[in-house]
């Protein structure tokens, strides 16, 4: 961090100038957000005399993301650092993977952080996203009532567990909201060769926390990301019956998060500079360390994945894409 | 809720896992957005109601039906329409209003205007025709007559404004879509209102905190109503 101090001070003083300028100009161009931007700058304006303004200071980065990154508190915990470093604001909009990508597709956000590789790849192939990086991972777990009516405890395969639940006709709660978790669930059903439906299968169209509550009340099974399950464990009556890869469960339950900038070639007013600054920041060793240090109830929720000695070219391109192939 | 519940609620409010200033900032955003939207709605609705009340033309009944139908607009649909308008690709995209309080004010304006217009119109219609005729007979202009009618109808109009405020401050569908429910990492709300904060808590299964925020919302609406009613009484005694 010592290396960054000079840039930090420069950013602070630049933010101060921008903040003061924002206040002196009547009204504030972008309405409500203009006033807030000024406040952030003023607080840091005693950082010293500034030479010239940094390009991005005072701007706002709109990040659309999934509910799991936001609701676990991770983003709030790390974003202050980014905001102070660059003198900017991050507007984190928690929408679920499908909606987050759709918002970005419409040009209403600058960057997306989601967890459904298939949907991310489609987004990349359609030209909406650029500069994808692997960010972090955790895993999915299959949770259910302790009594385990379908008897899936100890099953080593996620698809086998789902087939067992379907065969037993035991209640299963689905997110049904085109989120990353819902996408994962549908992929698992498909891999299991089972078409879920019937009285036992309920699409709730709700967030993970709500789905866990509904599953508790109905004694049902559900697929949950480990982070949300841990952060809510004390209030629900469900136990993990099939573990994910973090606890030596099947690799099919892996839950990787990726981050992508919105392509400024498609949406020219996307804040590409700041999006790339964000990607650079969040994939840096120090922030990756902060991610792994983030705890809820004493448990680590996210495992950093961006920093590695070994090259992993697949993180930059749609899965299975090869430079030799002509599929583009 | 009975009064006896309040003492039990008060410590719960203090013990909440909210950061300092969080609740106040969402109360502020709720009030800022709803009061602004209702103020603008009132400025539009009341003149429209008076004009409609004074005018006689074929199809007036149809216009009234349209306004009354507007009272039933689902807020989610209004949110979607405003989203299309302010989205980067929409007609107002260049203004960059998406995920701002201004966009939320727009959607609440659309929601609040029909009830304010409809109830004001009923109030204006309810004023005895003799009042208007007397104003004109005493040499008043049409504007004078309108002002006299407005004064007579002020209770109904206050009710209209309160109904509009109630609709605006309590709806969650449109402000969630166009506002994005954004709070900074410091816990200061940018576009999070009480209703979207409640939705966020419910999404996470934190039903108790959601209920407490709900109680704050009810208290807020009660306070605003009390203030407006008090204001109205002052008008009578003056």
TrEMBL record, chain A:
Query: According to the lineage, what is the superkingdom?
Result: Archaea
Renumbered to this chain, the Gly residues biased-composition regions fall at 25-41
All residue ranges annotated as the PBP domain in the record: 62-285
Entry's SUPFAM superfamilies?
Periplasmic binding protein-like II
Q: Region Disordered: which residues?
A: 24-52
PROSITE patterns in UniProt: PROKAR_LIPOPROTEIN
> Coiled-coil ranges per the record?
none
Pfam families in UniProt: PBP_like_2
| Record's compositionally biased regions (Low complexity) | 42-52
| Record protein name field | Molybdate transport protein
Q: Which organism does this record belong to?
A: Halorubrum tebenquichense DSM 14210
